[in-house]
Structure formats: structure tokens, C-alpha cells
UniProtKB/TrEMBL annotation, chain A:
Family label: Belongs to the ATPase A chain family.
Entry keyword set: ATP synthesis, Cell membrane, CF(0), Hydrogen ion transport, Ion transport, Membrane, Transmembrane, Transmembrane helix, Transport
Cellular location(s): Cell membrane; Membrane
InterPro entries recorded: ATP_syn_F0_a_bact/chloroplast (IPR045082), ATP_synth_F0_asu (IPR000568), ATP_synth_F0_asu_AS (IPR023011), F0_ATP_A_sf (IPR035908)
Keyword flag Transport: yes
Recorded topology in the membrane: Multi-pass membrane protein
Name of this chain's protein: ATP synthase subunit a
Transmembrane segments: 20-37, 75-94, 114-132, 163-184, 204-229
General function of this protein: Key component of the proton channel; it plays a direct role in the translocation of protons across the membrane.
Entry coiled-coil feature ranges: none
Keyword Cell membrane: yes
Family matches, as PANTHER family: ATP SYNTHASE SUBUNIT A, CHLOROPLASTIC
SUPFAM superfamilies for the chain: F1F0 ATP synthase subunit A (SSF81336)
Automatic annotation (TrEMBL), chain B:
SUPFAM superfamilies per UniProt: F1F0 ATP synthase subunit B, membrane domain
Listed Basic and acidic residues bias regions: 61-80
Chain segments carrying region Disordered: 61-91
Highest taxon of source: Bacteria
Protein name (Swiss-Prot/TrEMBL): ATP synthase subunit b
Length: 237, 172
């Protein structure tokens, strides 16, 4: 949570090493998780397969809650991946925080607005793409003029705020959680062991609450993503 | 603390955004390959299998109930058949008994009749014999009476000889 970030310039693009490392780790954890749980897939599910199927049912349920009809099946994989990625990304900062010198290298990638806004941008882009693919460009652009022409700026603004709120909600929650964790751990000092007595339970409690927040935020993000997609798919409703 | 975000707005973190987007898409593809496709395929197969199982269970239940009906029918049929057979056997037994008894009765009456006839015949024969005997004896007696009519001694002798002759006749 320190101010300076380790950056690398490559092909004229600037990369934040901390973010990229955290994302890589998150991706690896998610991949390892689904890889290990999907080894022995049988007709009669047992063990890991049950967990995985429960997760699939869960995310499919989120998608089907807002996207009606056959379209829901097209977004199952997206919702599943998004949920797992955000969930792991939210939790990873709670127990891993690697700081070398003044640079933090591993933290929650979702505690950075660049990451969350990218995710929300992807979601909104997917929603608009799905809307055009399903209803055609004409109907898509007509949607901006509904219910009448004066609503054009309002609709444009709505899309922009959707994008912003989707990303910033996740960022705010996770960032605040990590910030508070850092502050609580800052209460301790090595020459005053009594400080551990009161800061440890507080830290524990806040970590538990952060696990809860992280789960809820992953759920909320996926839910809102499917809501935005469904709005683009059927703009009348 | 948030100063880097301001720089970020000026395109500094475009690399990051690309990295996130690409890594997420790769992650999605890998999840699809590793877990999603096999899992959803298996779930679909399971749904089909369950539907099929329900159908086949319904079918086999119907079959079983049909079989049970058939068996029940056959059972009741065979029961009536068995009772019919028993009744028939009883009837034929009764008939046979009646004929046997009738036959025996006939035979017995026949025997009786023939026996009676025989006895009658014998009696007639015996009577005839006796009659002829009596006639003979009467003739003898008459002749003897005529022979010895003269004296009492002669009469006595006649009686004696008659008694003698009677004894002879008896013994004969």
C-alpha cells in the first residue's frame, strides 16, 4: 500500500510490476484450483467435482437470474471465470503482502483501480458487443434514444457511470479493506509487545470481515455484470 | 497515496490494462479447456441420463405391472381350471361308482335268479323222485299186503319185512 510503484517500460507501454505479478499469481491459483478439482470427472460426482459443479451452478444461477432464455448459456463461462478471478484476487491480499524495499510486489490486484476498471471495461464492452450481435447495430443505437431523443446524453452518461461504478465499487471495498489491515498492523511495534494483545484480535476480526466483503463483492460484480449484459440484450425491459 | 492514479489516467498504465485483459482472456480459455467444457458436458450428459432413466423407469414399471396383471390372470385362470378338473374327476368317479354298483347289482340279481332257478329245478327233481319212490313203495306195500293178507303171523312178517325194506330203502 506504499505510494511508489515498481514500473517497467516495454514496447512503449508502462507496466506496474506489482499488479502484473499479483494478477499472474491470482490466475495461477484459479487455474490450479479448477485444474485440481476437475481431474476425475465422472457421471457420479464426488469430491472436487462436487465443489466445482456447485460453483458452476452458483455462477450459472447468477447469470440466469438476470439474463433470460437461451442467451444465459453463452455467458456462463465468463461469469464463472470472472467470479473465481475476482474472488481469489480479493482474498489474496489478505494473507499475502510482499514488500521489497519501498515497493510492494504482491497484493490484492483488485485493490488497484486500474485492474478493477479494466475488468469493468471488459464487462461493459462484452455487454455492448452482445447487444449488437443479438439485436443488430440499428436496434443498438436506437436504444440510446429510448424512450425519446432527449434521453441520449442521459443514456450515454448512464453507460459511463455503469462502467465507473462497477469498477470503483470493487476497488473501493478491497482497497479500504487492505488499507485498514495495514493500519491495524501498524498499531503494533516490535518494542512494545503489549500492542500485539489488542491489535491481533482486531486484525483477525477485520481479516474475517474482509473475507466476507471480498466474497460479497465478487458476487456483486458478477451479478451487476450479468444485469448490464441482459440490459443490452433486451433493452426494452 | 493516490498520486499514481492521476498519472494512470494519462495512459501510463495502458500496459497494465492490456496485461489484465489478455491474462483474463487466457485464464478464461484455460478454464474452458481444463474445467468448464468437461464439467458442463458431463452435467448435460447427466441431465440427459437422468431424464432417460426416469423414462426407462416409467417404462419398466409399466412392464412390471403388466406382467403382474398377466400373472394374476393366469393364476385365477389356472385356479378355475383346477377346480374344473377336480369337479370333472369327481363327476367321472361318481359315474364310475354308479356303473360299478349297478353292474354288481345286476350280476347279483342274475346269480340270485339262476340260483333260485336251480333250486326250483332241484326241488322239482326231488319231488318227482319222491313221487315215483312213493308210488313204488305203495305198489310194493300193496303187493306185500295182498301177499300176506291171510294170517296174523303173515301180517307180522309183512310189517317186519316192510320195516326191513324201509331200512333198506333208507340206506339205499
Amino acid at each position: 500500500m506504499s505510494d511508489p510503484v515498481p514500473t517497467v517500460k516495454f514496447l512503449g507501454l508502462t507496466f506496474d510490476v506489482a499488479n502484473d505479478l499479483s494478477i499472474l499469481i491470482t490466475c495461477l491459483i484459479v487455474l490450479l484450483f479448477v485444474f485440481l478439482l476437475s481431474r476425475h470427472i465422472t457421471m457420479k460426482p464426488k469430491g472436487g467435482q462436487n465443489v466445482l459443479e456447485w460453483l458452476v451452478e452458483f455462477t450459472n444461477g447468477i447469470v440466469k437470474g438476470s439474463i433470460k432464455g437461451n442467451d444465459a448459456s453463452h455467458f456462463g463461462l465468463f461469469a464463472f471465470s470472472l467470479f473465481l478471478f475476482i474472488f481469489v484476487a480479493n482474498q489474496i491480499g489478505l494473507f499475502i503482502h510482499i514488500q521489497v524495499g519501498e515497493y510492494t510486489y504482491v497484493k490484492s490486484p483488485t485493490a488497484d483501480p486500474v485492474v478493477t476498471l479494466t475488468l469493468s471495461l471488459m464487462t461493459i464492452a462484452l455487454a455492448h458487443y452482445a447487444g449488437i450481435a443479438k439485436n443488430g447495430a440499428k436496434a443498438y443505437f436506437k436504444g440510446y434514444l429510448a424512450p425519446f431523443k432527449l434521453f441520449l446524453p442521459l443514456n450515454l452518461f448512464e453507460q459511463f457511470t455503469n462502467f465507473l461504478t462497477l469498477g470503483l465499487r470493487l476497488f473501493g471495498n478491497i482497497f479500504a479493506g487492505e488499507m485498514l489491515l495495514t493500519l491495524i498492523s501498524g498499531l503494533t511495534s516490535s518494542d512494545n509487545w503489549v500492542s500485539y494483545l489488542y491489535s491481533l484480535p482486531v486484525e483477525l476480526a477485520w481479516q474475517g470481515f474482509s473475507v466476507f466483503i471480498g466474497s460479497v463483492q465478487a458476487f456483486v460484480f458478477v451479478t451487476l455484470a450479468s444485469v448490464y449484459i441482459s440490459r443490452q440484450l433486451s433493452p426494452e425491459e | 497515496m493516490l498520486s499514481h492514479l492521476i498519472i494512470g489516467a494519462s495512459g501510463l498504465y495502458l500496459g497494465d490494462m492490456l496485461f489484465i485483459a489478455i491474462s483474463f482472456i487466457i485464464l478464461m480459455a484455460l478454464i474452458a479447456w481444463v474445467a468448464w467444457n468437461p464439467i458442463t458436458k458431463m452435467m448435460g450428459e447427466r441431465a440427459n441420463k437422468i431424464a432417460n432413466d426416469i423414462d426407462t423407469a416409467e417404462k419398466s414399471r409399466k412392464e412390471a405391472s403388466d406382467l403382474a396383471d398377466q400373472r394374476r390372470d393366469a393364476l385365477s385362470h389356472s385356479r378355475t381350471e383346477a377346480s374344473g378338473i377336480v369337479a370333472e374327476a369327481k363327476q367321472s368317479g361318481e359315474k364310475q361308482r354308479a356303473t360299478i354298483v349297478a353292474d354288481a347289482q345286476n350280476e347279483a340279481t342274475q346269480y340270485k335268479q339262476s340260483a333260485r332257478k336251480d333250486i326250483e329245478q332241484e326241488r322239482q327233481d326231488a319231488l318227482k323222485n319222491v313221487q315215483s319212490d312213493v308210488a313204488d313203495i305203495s305198489v310194493q306195500i300193496a303187493s306185500k299186503i295182498i301177499k300176506k293178507q291171510l294170517d296174523p303171523e303173515g301180517q307180522q312178517a309183512l310189517i317186519n319185512s316192510y320195516i326191513e325194506g324201509l331200512g333198506k330203502h333208507e340206506s339205499r
